[in-house]
Amino acid sequence: QVQLVESGGGLVQPGGSLRLSCAASGFTFGSSDINWVRQAPGKGAEWISRISGGGTSTYYADSVKGRFTISRDYAKNTVYLQMNSLKPEDAALYYCRTLVTGRIIRGRGTQVTVSS
Questions:
Q1: Which end of the chain is more exposed for a tag (fewer CB within 10 A), N or C?
Q2: Longest Cα pair distance anywhere in the chain, in angstroms?
């Protein structure tokens, strides 16, 4: 079964850090770019980062550049999103997304709350 499962969200104070995980299964992990996307209540989905299948290329939205880092572990079939210097506007449901044989696959997401 092709699936992505996110974890690592939670409540953090402004300026704090979290590391999100996206565990992949059911497809060739090393052949697939993986994206992180977030959606805040009442807002549309916002793409924030992508890592290439080979892990050599990474991309970030301007809103998170310099604060977030995407990486992947091939032994664990997992993609990570290290989030530092979190701001209240980073609060959202974060989910990972990929394309497998032309079909968009996404996880259910993990909630991030940034509040003092």
A1: N
A2: 43
Banded model confidence at residue 86, pLDDT cuts 50, 70, 90: very high
State how far the Cα of 108 lies from the Cα of 110, in Å rounded to an integer: 7
> C-alpha angle with apex 17: 15 to 66, nearest 5 degrees?
75
| C-beta neighbour count of 49 within 10 angstroms | 22
Across the strands, what pairs with 80?
Answer: 21, 71
Cα–Cα distance for residue pair 50/65, rounded to 1 Å: 12
| Partners of 96 in the β-ladder | 36
11/22 Cα distance (integer angstroms)? 18
